[in-house]
Amino acid sequence: MYSFKNDYSEGAHPRILNALIESNLVQDEGYGEDKYSQEAIDLLKQKLGRTDIDIHFLTGGTQTNLTSISAFLRPIDAAIAAHTGHIFVHETGAIEATGHKVITCDARVDGKLTPKKIKGVLDSHPDEHMVKPKLVYISNTTEIGSIYKKRELEDLSKFCKENQLILYLDGARLGSALCSEENDLKLSDLPDLVDAFYIGGTKNGALLGEALVICKESLKEDFRFHMKQKGALLAKGRLIGIQFLELFRDNLYFELADHANKMASKLSDGIRQANLTFLTHSPSNQIFPILPNALVNELQKDYLFYNWEKVDAENSAVRLVTSWATREEEVMRFVERILRFCQTESR
Amino acid sequence: MYSFKNDYSEGAHPRILNALIESNLVQDEGYGEDKYSQEAIDLLKQKLGRTDIDIHFLTGGTQTNLTSISAFLRPIDAAIAAHTGHIFVHETGAIEATGHKVITCDARVDGKLTPKKIKGVLDSHPDEHMVKPKLVYISNTTEIGSIYKKRELEDLSKFCKENQLILYLDGARLGSALCSEENDLKLSDLPDLVDAFYIGGTKNGALLGEALVICKESLKEDFRFHMKQKGALLAKGRLIGIQFLELFRDNLYFELADHANKMASKLSDGIRQANLTFLTHSPSNQIFPILPNALVNELQKDYLFYNWEKVDAENSAVRLVTSWATREEEVMRFVERILRFCQTESR
Amino acid sequence: MYSFKNDYSEGAHPRILNALIESNLVQDEGYGEDKYSQEAIDLLKQKLGRTDIDIHFLTGGTQTNLTSISAFLRPIDAAIAAHTGHIFVHETGAIEATGHKVITCDARVDGKLTPKKIKGVLDSHPDEHMVKPKLVYISNTTEIGSIYKKRELEDLSKFCKENQLILYLDGARLGSALCSEENDLKLSDLPDLVDAFYIGGTKNGALLGEALVICKESLKEDFRFHMKQKGALLAKGRLIGIQFLELFRDNLYFELADHANKMASKLSDGIRQANLTFLTHSPSNQIFPILPNALVNELQKDYLFYNWEKVDAENSAVRLVTSWATREEEVMRFVERILRFCQTESR
Amino acid sequence: MYSFKNDYSEGAHPRILNALIESNLVQDEGYGEDKYSQEAIDLLKQKLGRTDIDIHFLTGGTQTNLTSISAFLRPIDAAIAAHTGHIFVHETGAIEATGHKVITCDARVDGKLTPKKIKGVLDSHPDEHMVKPKLVYISNTTEIGSIYKKRELEDLSKFCKENQLILYLDGARLGSALCSEENDLKLSDLPDLVDAFYIGGTKNGALLGEALVICKESLKEDFRFHMKQKGALLAKGRLIGIQFLELFRDNLYFELADHANKMASKLSDGIRQANLTFLTHSPSNQIFPILPNALVNELQKDYLFYNWEKVDAENSAVRLVTSWATREEEVMRFVERILRFCQTESR
């Protein structure tokens, strides 16, 4: 069985393991105050072109989202998210567990928020009988594989500033977004556009780890206290620092994401060649082809992937995810299998 | 500089890194449902002599404590801890942040709770104007290096059962406790004595990871939901499973703890030889010698350790911690330094 | 100006004020342990035909909802509500502030939940990456004036029991529901059908006060602790006990609700006579007629009421609420004003 | 039986009931936006000599404390209180339930905090492994009947300002404090000295109600949202507004507190005359005489009061509370009973 189920099916890129081995017996400070973490932070600041930002390493996406959002909001404040947003759907109510409502906007077509949608939320929350919408949560790539273009992010940024809203970007798959063929954003554009975001490590070659970047001055204060309180300060914080240092020492982070995207692209090309269509437009490492149920059954004999949703009586959308570790020969075999099936069918 | 500051100054035991390397490219399920985690759980159940227990892997002590305690308690319930207890002092109010008061008992002498102390808490919480004391939190080793003898734990266990109290044991340094020369507890005694506990990995040779063991049936339900909600389900959950599998595959876990204890013991012996005394009796990998301030200053030129507290105008207690990675030659050098200092002084 | 804005524009029914005066200087216990509260509880148990239920007095609807729901749920549990539900829309995120997500079902037509809608929620919450839907929140009357028929409630009750869901009924306007011409439910039916509900006092003639009835055994434990923790135990708890005693001593509670309904009915009749229609079918003390904007403007010169929503360019739905205190002559004057306007217009 | 158990054993001062009756059928806005509440707020601002303060009416002390403190603090912030403080002891963990630790200082002698004690707390909370002490909670009168002198409050105020601490005063019995013979504070001194405080109504003649005064600009924002979220916005908010309007229309509030103090003073004088002593110095409406157990038993035949604590084998401290409603003849009878007992004993 080969898995296209997700981008966290393997361990870490070998260079990361090597970095752990090399540093293993060096003694250093605990709780992220080690020199590796400090160097990784300095390096990321360089890549982001800013020194007036704070960077913290956390272990995973849900932890990063809940620690940040609960630190940034007052008890009466709510987050706004796409109805497909990870914090609304797939974090077991983690944000609500810290006391905050998540208000959703319909984002059926592309998984994205727009100023217009957010405006609608503001208008329907006029007084003290309702929560205060205060933070806008977006993901790039989105949960359905789409990406934000620079212009879209600029519009959101402007709207949020004008309306005193915090703009927060979940970058669990930021690597894939920035390496997408359709992307026109640079990593260093982000600190100007959003108030906080994270650079996902777990889904792009690290064992674990996300780098939270806090850009807005007023959100920085005492953040390590929030991390400790939420159980997010690792005693051996170096574990994440070392990994980010390796990922950003040269271009490794982007090479890994680029590979994942290329593999997804090859899958898409093959699927298109078989005259099959897609549920959403997703120029990233997650694709959602619509396949005949018989083909789905056939593929499931040798491949693991998620059934995303039933499209009609005979067809289903599935989710295929590629990663830094996806092997090209498996991609080719998978595509051939589809083509073969479709040729047989069409005869 | 050599550090006796804590037991998380290095990476992981080399065998653990090897296990990560060997499994690195094998594809497996996410979120702790991989075969490594499952095997590690089965192995731990064997070692604990029980199949009717649930085991979960979390990343660190604070996370394990807050996820468990908030899962086990109703909103009105409180935890009882020694005033030195980690959840009361050193977790940035993590338990309170989940809504629960931590009630303390004075434990100045030995950092331990007793039925009598807990009884005092119950008696002073008679009605609905006060919280309900519901969970007893103990640590073994304690935060000041002492250990619970089997008889003490049996007494606590009996008292808690009689009073419908949940008994929870923080085992961040359980390895050191069980390998102490004074210990008469077996790992497999614990499921009968406490309702939940964790086996600490971070402080005994792992990169990160604690194995939470839930023994009481009513506390097991839906625990993975609580983990996800608190950001404690790693996408690459295998990372912790692989480590515990390696630690318990043979006797490695205990060998590492034993080494740490032996190193602490050598430090203690040397310090005693210099006619110096200790703040607490700690037959484990943390010791608290009382040193003349001049000696503290001298040692700090080459060693890192915590100043614990001022004892009198001329003397201070310091904390020395050893680990699986502590080098014996450094221990010997440190002891010689002390002896030399004391000889010079006494002349 | 006369107000049809809500059912809490005046003080209390005069008999309630008299009861307060008469008992005023009698000394009694605090925090709801006075004899008035005890008598009121006994009386309500009689009216409900059950002795195995617990009754508590709280000050208002939001407080009752948040105290109950947070007491009944574990951290990972969520409530299910109509998208129009009070806890979702108009309580400033009070439920989320206690840590619980509110999942909504579309209830555009009638503001009600059905087994089918709830089933949809259960089906879309299959695993630990999502919260556990655990409590079903309904209101009777609903937020848009509709009522649950006995059969509908029986179906919900059966479904909830089969699916281990707690069924909770918000009875802020329960008097109006039970006195509706279309109602076929008795107050004493409720303990068999729902797990907890409250009998609203504030909106039916009391100064303040709601009587929470807990029917399900497992939800009763330590409820006064939860009340105290949420600031819901009045020092002079007698204040609410005395009022409920007066409301249920004879038939006063139902007479007041009946008056409110009759006044709403007269308003509806008059509006229908003017050939105007309604946004929803509401056989209770809240009605939502659709009026020409010009008529709305005309009426607003002398009457207070809420603009509910724009229906089209020329028409708006408004909300008219009647109460125990609504004066019939004002109702008649209001109707005449509408009829006069419509006659003039139609000429 | 006559009760000296507390100051909330009766209803309300008759003038308050009259005010409710007179306003009863006037229609007005809900949720505290009525003209009575607005007038009461204006009146209180006058009495406080400040227009730049915000005033809100809540139903009780615990509700006021939990709503304020949770609104004022960030998740990582803690309150500091005397170990006798109401929020620490008698509110069922209400503050912790909103996520905040309450750190205590020993206040055995007089129930009061001092800059020195608070300094000790700050010094022992140096880094992110511990909560941030951020709000100082004091009560006046304190829970054991003592009062803060102006100089003490000025010292606390200065210290808090210098250390960026919020100073919050619980005024459940502020009337009694300000009318104490030993008092040198004026009501209008408070806004300059503390950041927020409340003027207690429940324990000084109202049916229910506390007036929260927010003095510090940064604490004012969106406070009504916090109230609604905590269930503290009464639909008939006028109920509290009308009462405070009556209490402060002239000098009624202070006359009631003065009566309570006078009655306590007469009790104290009598007890002193019998050569009995007191547990604490309490120049207010709560006194804590130490009585022979036999006398306690004798008195309990006809009087209700709390046994406070055992002093030695033969003597106990009891708590006697007087109020606006305490009848002087009952006070005299009680004193006579004590004197008679002591004379008999001494013979």
Automatic annotation (TrEMBL), chains A, B, C, D:
Domain (Aromatic amino acid beta-eliminating lyase/threonine aldolase): residue spans on this chain: 25-287
Keywords for this protein: Aminotransferase, Pyridoxal phosphate, Transferase
GO molecular function, one term: transaminase activity
SUPFAM superfamilies: PLP-dependent transferases (SSF53383)
Cofactor(s) listed: pyridoxal 5'-phosphate
Gene3D superfamilies: Aspartate Aminotransferase, domain 1, Type I PLP-dependent aspartate aminotransferase-like (Major domain)
Coiled-coil parts of chain: none
Any single biological process term in GO: amino acid metabolic process
Domain of life where this protein originates: Bacteria
Protein family: Belongs to the threonine aldolase family.
Protein's name according to its UniProt entry: Aminotransferase class V-fold PLP-dependent enzyme
Species name: Terrilactibacillus tamarindi
